[in-house]
Amino acid sequence: MATQKYEEQLLLLNSLFLSTQEAIDYLGVSKQCFHSLVARGKIQKIRKGSAVLYYADEISERKRQQPWLRQKYGPIQEG
Q1: Using one digit for the tens of pLDDT, what is the confidence trace for 33-47?
Q2: What is one Pfam family matched by this protein (predicted)?
Q3: Model's pTM, two decimal places?
């Protein structure tokens, strides 16, 4: 019974939040670019102890806006 409850909670957690690597992979950007977006406040992070998570809907919205942002500002220049 408890196992089913934990599995349901994990499914809910996975539907609402992404880890750093999941967000980077989903957006298709470099770690440096992603951390720059976070540092500039373009993506909000959530801390719970040592865990850092990102809102899945915010990452999805950023992904949706990427083509427009790249057209407006050009591709991200990586060093």
Answers
A1: 999 999 999 999 999
A2: HTH_17
A3: 0.76
Residue type, position 8, single letter: E
Residue 57 sits in a domain whose CATH number is 1.10.1660
Rounded to 5°, angle at Cα 24 from 20 and 26: 115
The CA angle 12-15-17, to the nearest 5 degrees, is 100
As a whole number of angstroms, the distance between CA 29 and CA 21 comes to: 10
For the chain, the domain total comes to: 1
Distance CA 50, CA 74 (A): 35
